[in-house]
Amino acid sequence: MAEGQSRGGLRALEIAALVLVALASVAAGVVHYLGAPSLVAFSIAALALAGLAWTVSFATEQVGERFGPAVTGLLQSTLGNLPEFFVVLFALSAGEVVIAQTSLIGSVLANALLVLGLAMVAGSFRSEGKVMSFGRRLPNDTATLLLVAVFIIALIGVSVAADNGAARHVKAISVIGAICLLGVYLTWLVPYLRSDREHSRGQARLGFGSAATILLAAGIGAAFVSDWFVAELRPTIDRFGISAAFAGIVIVAIAGNAVENVVGVTLAWKRQHDLAISVIKNSVSQVAAFLFPLLVLCSLAFAQPLTFSIAPVFIVALLLTAIAVWQITGDGEGTIFEGVALVALYIILAAVTLYD
Amino acid sequence: MAEGQSRGGLRALEIAALVLVALASVAAGVVHYLGAPSLVAFSIAALALAGLAWTVSFATEQVGERFGPAVTGLLQSTLGNLPEFFVVLFALSAGEVVIAQTSLIGSVLANALLVLGLAMVAGSFRSEGKVMSFGRRLPNDTATLLLVAVFIIALIGVSVAADNGAARHVKAISVIGAICLLGVYLTWLVPYLRSDREHSRGQARLGFGSAATILLAAGIGAAFVSDWFVAELRPTIDRFGISAAFAGIVIVAIAGNAVENVVGVTLAWKRQHDLAISVIKNSVSQVAAFLFPLLVLCSLAFAQPLTFSIAPVFIVALLLTAIAVWQITGDGEGTIFEGVALVALYIILAAVTLYD
Amino acid sequence: MAEGQSRGGLRALEIAALVLVALASVAAGVVHYLGAPSLVAFSIAALALAGLAWTVSFATEQVGERFGPAVTGLLQSTLGNLPEFFVVLFALSAGEVVIAQTSLIGSVLANALLVLGLAMVAGSFRSEGKVMSFGRRLPNDTATLLLVAVFIIALIGVSVAADNGAARHVKAISVIGAICLLGVYLTWLVPYLRSDREHSRGQARLGFGSAATILLAAGIGAAFVSDWFVAELRPTIDRFGISAAFAGIVIVAIAGNAVENVVGVTLAWKRQHDLAISVIKNSVSQVAAFLFPLLVLCSLAFAQPLTFSIAPVFIVALLLTAIAVWQITGDGEGTIFEGVALVALYIILAAVTLYD
Predict the structure, then answer these.
(1) Per DSSP, what are the bridge partners of residue B6?
(2) Is ipTM strictly over 0.90?
(3) How many other CB atoms sit within 10 Å of the CB of residue C102?
(4) The whole model's pTM is what?
(5) Could you report the per-residue pLDDT of C323-347, keeping only the tens digit for each?
(6) Looking at beta carbons, which residues of chain A come within 8 Å of C320?
(7) A150: which residues sit within 8 A by CB, 6+ positions away?
(8) Residue C135 burial (CB < 10 Å; 0-12/13-18/19+)?
(9) For testing the chain A interface, which of C120, C131, C315, C316 should be mutated: the one with the most A CBs within 10 Å?
(10) CA–CA distance from C187 to each of A75, B210, B340, C261 (Å)?
């Protein structure tokens, strides 16, 4: 694309998409307050949420194009997790602790298994020798962050199962664990961002002011739509007899991560392997090592706090996911087979959750 | 060995061995139908089974010598697993689900720990600097396949332990898991075989027709002898007060894998490190990611189906074996110490199973 | 430091320290037999124990300075573990099995997480590009040794939880496991020591005779002080309402490893990365794969034997520690973030144990 043209503003398709997202968000509010059937209201809210996540991601890309893949990937996944943050917050305030927890865990697992797997299939398929290459540092750092999160979760889980003294202090241990996890995440984040010295790729087609305005609007929209989404989720679940765990692990996780999904896979397809891995891996470690502990601390204000005490099946799933993803991506190479293996793990997990 | 001589046919020792195997197979049938004491009948059947596995492996080598180590190793372990396949099938049809499961798991563990360990001790001992080298790709791919299998088994195991909804749908989840696992295995297998472009090593001493005839005869023999072996196993176990788990994990696993054992260790001793690792690793991943899911699907026809729901002690053993074998072989180097560590793991496992 | 001066004998500070340690050891005996308040007697014994461990380490360094980092690191951690050995032995003879076990496990975890973490923070902070480098072989060998120990512990743990046949033979399985673990450790140790061909660094300031005398005196002192330390531990625990697990995992582990702590971190700060890693890693693998199985065998003489059957929370902690430490150090590189992650794991573990 020519420099002159690319600075000239948004393309017609992009403008249409932004308008559609705005309309969907308004529609989600209208059907919510008019008391439409829960499935309709829920579906529109889910679509609007995915659209808002895309809007945030798009605006971030415009702001972030002066940075390298590390900062842009981080910004995109941070702000892209904004809807997720609101969904969990509203679920907690509505007393839906299982949905809050499973949507966080589902977000980690969907990104680490489904999205990463699809991106590796796409990236390897389009690479010479069917092997995609990427930097080894980020996958290994993500594995470290995931293992710290799993450590807290597994120790609390085994204490609860043994019903020992620690089981009666899950809240206190969760707070200590949350502070440790946030500390580790920030220690990682600062040098990671500093290392990103790549120059602007000069493709921003929106001024900083316009991009920031869109970001702000999308953020406020995400807060409202998340509220409606959570409010419609419970009646929808009850109506269709879905387990709360399946709703959190699969439906909320996929709706809330639709953007990372599409962006990550598209980037891999375009052979931008490092950027694809950056978007997906940052999303995984951010939810596990930033959003989760942050929400544990925020939830101290609620009647039913969020803790790191989760169902055994998800403890095992998180542990094995951390190990498998490290094993597969730690060498900085990906193949179609490895991508398929990750997707298979997600299907197996979804099947187990479906019957839960 | 001289080219002229080597093409001239089988050596006397090989002919004698083939005759012995045929005699042992016939003898196994005779003592079975004559109602000889179970220990005698069982021992002869076990010997005949090991001999048939060797015959299959030998004939495959003659057929396979025009290929590289990847295809030959795969062929040998595939056809070498034929007796294993029949043993599990007959055990299932006789309602011996524990023996069927433990002999599959035992086959994975015996190959991954005992045989690999012995091969690494032999290979390192005979290598310069006491360090043997081999390709890193296969050990890492095997680790991925094992982790997918462990993922299914562990999630089902923890669901059964928690007695949640998923525990009542173990059969359905096992079928989904089996299909996923087979899909991952085939996605791995196709490019793996394509990558094997090595030329013929020109040592085949048997025509294709003769080798194929031997293969067919050995295959049919394996089916019959497996039936007698399983039939004599139960009375032998009861007579000696051995646990079914020990019988499956140690006795059936070692009898059924006698050939991989001898072939793998011999190849390592002859400094053919990559071929040795190929035979052993292929056998491991094949049983875990091909034979096990295939038998889960086949067993749908039986009254007592085979599922991925196994005893907790074997879930933990499989998980730790997958991790330890990856840790030890993932770097493409092996030492005597590492081989001894793998053998020690197998001895510990056998000790735990003995008292089970 | 000048050669002439350095060979001239000990520095004033070192002599003062040795005198202080001797005084603290005598004081520990005096307050113990005079029946001083338990906290006072316990604190003095803990200080004396840490001092004795330093003395052992110091004298070893004088003896060991003619060797390379492998032998010196090993000698220091072996003799530095002498107080630990006596503490566990006296705890066992006093029937305090939980304290004996948790102080062994705590020693592994404190070294592998807290000390290694602090050393990595110090070493990375002072390295170019904030990344410290060290040999990959030792971290990977330590991971193998830890995994073998975890294998025994986890299989026994899951058998006890399932209350199957193996649960009634924990002692017999522990003895078999201890013999296997010792065999693996020795197989590793012999070539490891042989590989250490580095020349003398010529800094010994004590004759062999003097150093050996100090070593002997410190060893005998450690035996006595350990006895008093264990005797005062129980009343101190009861008085302050601390759990026995916390006492073992945190207090005994840190007091018993004060030296590895200071030595390891100081060496890392001085940019002697390989020596720092050698001291710490050898201490970890030695307690897990030498001291623990040795004490299991020694304890056969006691009424209440030491076995590998430990509380589930420590099984999970050991497994995840083995995996995390391997993941973080297996690549031969360390960063501040990785060091902080290890320290965070220790804080989380201490928090869980505190409430146990």
Answers:
(1) none
(2) no
(3) 29
(4) 0.90
(5) 999 999 999 999 999 999 999 999 9
(6) 147, 150-151, 154-155, 319
(7) A315, A318, A319, A322, C320
(8) middle
(9) C316
(10) 50, 46, 8, 27
